[in-house]
Amino acid sequence: MSGKRLALVLSLGVLALIGAAIAVVLTLALLRSQTASALDEAVSEATEGHRFELLRFEFTHLPNRLLTEIARWFDDDELNDDAALERWFTAREESNRKPAERALERAIARSASAMGLDSPLPLFGDVQLQWPPVDVDLGETLRVLAVSPRNEVRLVRTVLLSSDIAADQFERLEAIVEADGEWAAWVTTIGGVALYPAPVVSSRDYLRTLQIMAHEWTHHYLGFYPLGLSYGRGPEMRTINETVADIVGDELGLQAALTIEAELPVADNPERQALLARTDPILRSLRLEVDELLAQGKVDEAEQRMEAARQELAEAGRPFRKINQAFLAFRGGYGASGSSASEWGPRLIALRESSDSLAHFVEQVRGINSPAEADRLLPR
């Protein structure tokens, strides 16, 4: 390897660490909220022994990734990405996970570049590259505890939980937070989270896996622009960020899937799509009803309505373990979902449809730093 090439490798390694550090800071900002001390104590008690150890995760993964990337510069052998992906998505053996991660990351990186989503290299503006590097971990399944006041649908706390907490423990954690009658709590498994690397749940549907990966990479990308930096400035900015990540992630993930020649499993379930089409309007209408009831101070009536809707959805073939204010607050942040009642979803989708390309859409939205700025930019 030439001295010039080695210098570039080391420079990229340093920049990757800087980017990762920024991602960590952003993650901490996303998880931070101002709440009453009584809630702090309840959440701490509920999550004791189950909180996700962020620093250990970062210090474990970042050095390994940096060494792997540097080693790849010395090894010019072509990797058989298709074979690695076939082994992972069919056999699902742990020994195949790392090669599959790298193959999926390369697919997204190639597609991001092809779709015009490259960025100027910091300090070297004339050099364009896919930035920040796509980095995921398919071995970590995380949970999240979401908390909302009972008298309004508003996300006041999210706490990442480790994968060792079983589903039968969810209600115990929720009960501790809800004990004083002021808060609604909800624990669920999440598909991905924008740490660095991003933990992503890999289902046997490789297209969905790629779309979740692309969603989390979009958060990493936006972290260098006003939109991502504004994530923690209230529920509207969270919704705008998550909706943009959904739009970009779905399109970028699909493009990445088209570059893979291996025959891999992908979900193609018309019945599932028909079920969502029937039941998403129930969830969307429920959110509007609950907001109206809570605005009138009718907390008990709102909770009765949520339980009735849960039973209705279960009878329709879409069961949820629990529907409460925290459930609605957490899920409501994804405006592109058919079940969302947010105005930002349809408006952002309309902007994407009127944009010349995905890159053009991203260029327009990444500078948004407030709901007022979004309102000026987005079509009605």
Short description:
The protein has 380 residues and is mainly α. The protein has 15 helices and seven strands. The termini are far apart.
The proportion of residues forming helix, as a percent range, comes to 55-70%
User: Judging from the principal axes of the Cα atoms, what is the shape?
Assistant: globular
Please list the strands of the largest sheet in the order they lie side by side: 5-4-6
Order of helices and strands: HHHHHEEEEEHEEHHHHHHHHH
| Mean pLDDT score | 86
Number of strands: 7
> What is the terminal separation in angstroms?
55 Å
Strand content: 5-15%
Largest sheet: 3 strands, antiparallel
Task: Provide the low-confidence segments as ranges.
Answer: 1-11, 30-36
Total of DSSP H or I helical runs spanning 4+ residues: 15
Oligomeric state: single chain
Q: What is the radius of gyration?
A: 21 Å
Q: Which structural class best describes the helix and strand composition? A: mainly alpha
